[in-house]
Amino acid sequence: MIAQLPTIYYPESDGKPMADNTKQFRWILVIEQNLDWLYAQDSEVFVAGDLFWYPVEGRSNIVTAPDILVVFGRPKGDRGSYKQWEEENVAPQVVFEILSPSNSKTEMDKKLLFYDRYGVMEYYIYDPDRDQLEGWLRGENGSLESIAEMHAWVSPRLGIRFDQSEEELKIYCPDGTPFHSYNEVNILLKEERQRVETEQQRAEFEKQRAEFEKQRADEMEALLNQYRAQFGDLNPS
């Protein structure tokens, strides 16, 4: 009789909140949502926030949950966790962490080692309280290496640009469009709808004016023809 191997349970939550404060939560949402929009038309780019990542089958104790992860070459769709062996062994290529006051240096050092060991190509940490941005890129030696200058840095894989010239970090899409919050997108959509409505109203007004002028011209032509029929040509040659 073949003994059955014990079933390994891979938790999908640790019971902790996604973020410790509103500032951290806002930045997680802004980056995750904008990356999701950036790759909305690419079915083979998976973007997620606060999702458990298990890189090794059978080792449920080897796990972390990046604030944002991006995986190229894996389909979009809902997942309870990212089990790498079920994803053709494709590791997340880009991860982000947004710091809160509760994050210790030891904790973040362990995360850097984890991402280095399990194949992340680009790793970014942003501290919104100090407006500090750090980044690591996998180098020719096969390890994650610190990026010396982050201002105006362009992510090789994502194409997004980081701008630290203002009081708060700005991130720009490859086409130069800035990352927006959900509320900012709503405002922009409302402004766009109002602009379209105004253009439609202007177009309708121009259409009505053109119709009125054509009607008036037709009436003048009819009146002229009536005079001609009654009095003849007023300008004989």
Detailed description of the structure:
With 237 residues, this protein is of the alpha+beta class. The protein folds into 2 domains: 22-180, tt1808, chain A; 181-237. It has 3 helices and 10 strands. It has helices at 22-38, 105-117, 182-231, and strands spanning 45-49, 53-54, 68-72, 82-83, 94-98, 122-127, 132-138, 144-146, 161-163, 170-172. A 6-stranded mixed beta sheet has the order 1-3-5-6-7-8, sandwiched between helices. Strand 5, helix 2 (105-117) and strand 6 (122-127) form a beta-alpha-beta unit. The longest helix is centred in the C-terminal third of the chain and has 50 residues, at 182-231. The protein is elongated. The protein starts with 21 loop residues before the first helix and ends in a 6-residue tail after the last helix. The model has no long low-confidence stretch (mean pLDDT 87).
What can be said about the biggest beta sheet? 6 strands, mixed
Report the strand count. 10
Kindly give the count of domains. 2
H and E string? HEEEEEHEEEEEH
CATH superfamily of the largest domain: tt1808, chain A
| Shape designation | elongated
- Count of discrete alpha- or pi-helical segments spanning 4 or more residues: 3
End-to-end Cα distance, whole Å, is 119 Å
CATH architectural arrangement of the largest domain: Alpha-Beta Complex
Provide the helix percentage.
Answer: 25-40%
Strand content: 15-25%
How many whole angstroms does the radius of gyration measure?
Answer: 30 Å
Note poorly predicted spans: none
CATH topology of the largest domain: tt1808, chain A
Top-tier CATH class of the largest domain: Alpha Beta
Summarize model confidence as the mean pLDDT: 87
Structural class: alpha+beta
Strand line-up of the largest beta sheet: 1-3-5-6-7-8
